[in-house]
TrEMBL record:
Keywords: Oxidoreductase, Tricarboxylic acid cycle. Residues 14-340 form the Isopropylmalate dehydrogenase-like domain. InterPro entries: IsoCit/isopropylmalate_DH_CS (IPR019818), IsoPropMal-DH-like_dom (IPR024084). One of its GO terms (biological process) is tricarboxylic acid cycle. This is Isocitrate dehydrogenase [NAD] subunit alpha, mitochondrial. It comes from the Eukaryota. Belongs to the isocitrate and isopropylmalate dehydrogenases family. Heterooligomer of subunits alpha (IDH3A), beta (IDH3B), and gamma (IDH3G) in the apparent ratio of 2:1:1. The heterodimer containing one IDH3A and one IDH3B subunit and the heterodimer containing one IDH3A and one IDH3G subunit assemble into a heterotetramer (which contains two subunits of IDH3A, one of IDH3B and one of IDH3G) and further into the heterooctamer. Catalytic subunit of the enzyme which catalyzes the decarboxylation of isocitrate (ICT) into alpha-ketoglutarate. The heterodimer composed of the alpha (IDH3A) and beta (IDH3B) subunits and the heterodimer composed of the alpha (IDH3A) and gamma (IDH3G) subunits, have considerable basal activity but the full activity of the heterotetramer (containing two subunits of IDH3A, one of IDH3B and one of IDH3G) requires the assembly and cooperative function of both heterodimers. Residues 324-345 are annotated as: Disordered.
């Protein structure tokens, strides 16, 4: 992978921006305004994907978009809509496979002022992004349409790299514990291999506490005792579910960013849907993609600017002044953005 330090040596970092569908363009524009206000002198190159691309180019994920992602290595993406049925493949899954973005990183942090049941959440879910039930292997239905099947594939290499990624992330961020989430008691082959490999990798990190938990117990404990969790690492399907559960602990998907990271590229995104019912109304909460842009800055080694923006988000939401309706206010997207910029001094 081209390291962030190498990227920083370039005269001006180029970011591929995929505005996406529905509210995507509005919230992406908000994030870019805030990045610019914070002094991030990026060059933005725009690309189409999703329904917008289908209408303009006749395909959901044009080659020109893939080429731009490949060229710039770092992308900021709004929500995309994959049409239901008709043989369409998930765009997000396609991007992860194309660029081997094997690590899905979903942090959730409590912000005072949100509609959250907890005040002290600080959890990172590290999800394997390319294998398991989402690999697409062996999917078929019987001729009489009375049965269906799919194949889950876990490889040793895939398990090693995602668990190592989680422990390295924990060490880098000064975290104390990694919880390995599995279902090896029932899925003895696939989840069993993942757990076996995770135990081996954990042994190389004596400075970080390692804990194992069956996925159903993890769901219960996340709801009852979320303070017990720090970093979680798990397989694709479990990670998809657990990361959304964690978003619910901090006020919903509007407060949850996501990063898809591989050895050659990284895509940072809002993880919620495109919300076509409020598209163009200038009322969407842009926090998810703003937090994703903070992840992007951290990836690029720009921690000072990342922390500035995070504190501005925290101050804006806590004040309750000029926040969007899902945060208890009545401000528009643009008013919320302006307020956040005023807090970044």
């Amino acid at each position: 992978r081209d390291s962030p330090s190498l990227l920083m040596k370039m005269s001006r970092i180029k970011i591929t921006v995929i505005p996406g569908d529905g509210i995507g363009p509005s919230i992406i524009e908000s994030a870019i305004q805030i990045l610019t206000h914070a002094g991030c002198d990026f060059e933005y190159e725009y690309a189409d994907a999703g329904l917008v691309a289908l209408e303009k180019h006749g395909e959901l994920l044009p080659q020109a978009t893939l080429d731009l992602i490949e060229k710039n290595k770092v992308s900021l993406k709004g929500p995309l809509t994959t049409p239901v049925g008709g043989g369409f493949t998930s765009i997000n899954v396609s991007l992860r496979k194309k660029f081997n973005l094997y690590a899905n990183v979903r942090p959730v942090i409590s912000f005072k002022g949100t509609k959250s049941r907890y005040e002290n959440i600080d959890i990172i879910t590290v999800r394997e992004n390319t294998e398991g039930m989402y690999s697409g292997a062996g999917q078929k239905r019987s001729d009489d349409n009375k049965s269906a099947e799919a194949m889950s594939i876990i490889t040793r290499d895939g398990a090693e790299r995602i668990v190592k990624f989680a422990f390295e992330l924990a060490r880098q961020e000064g975290r104390k514990k990694v919880t390995i989430i599995h279902k090896a008691n029932i899925l003895k082959s696939t989840s069993g291999l993942f757990l076996e490999v995770a135990r081996e990798i954990a042994g190389h990190y004596p400075d970080i506490q390692s804990e194992e938990m069956i996925v159903d117990a993890a769901c219960m404990n996340l709801v009852m005792y979320p303070e017990r969790f720090d970093v979680m690492v798990t397989t694709n399907l479990f990670g998809d579910i657990l990361s959304d559960l964690c978003a619910g602990l901090v006020g919903g998907l509007g407060m949850a960013p996501g990063a898809n990271i591989g050895d050659g590229a990284a895509i940072f995104e809002a993880v919620h849907g495109s919300a076509p019912d409020i598209a163009g109304k200038n009322i969407a909460n842009p926090t998810s993609v703003i937090l994703a842009s903070i992840q992007m800055l951290e990836y690029l080694g720009m921690q000072d600017k990342a922390e500035r923006i995070r504190e501005a988000v925290r101050a804006t939401i806590e004040s309750g002044d000029r926040v969007t309706r899902d945060l208890g206010g009545s401000a528009s997207t643009s008013e919320f953005t302006q307020q956040l910029c005023s807090k970044d001094t």
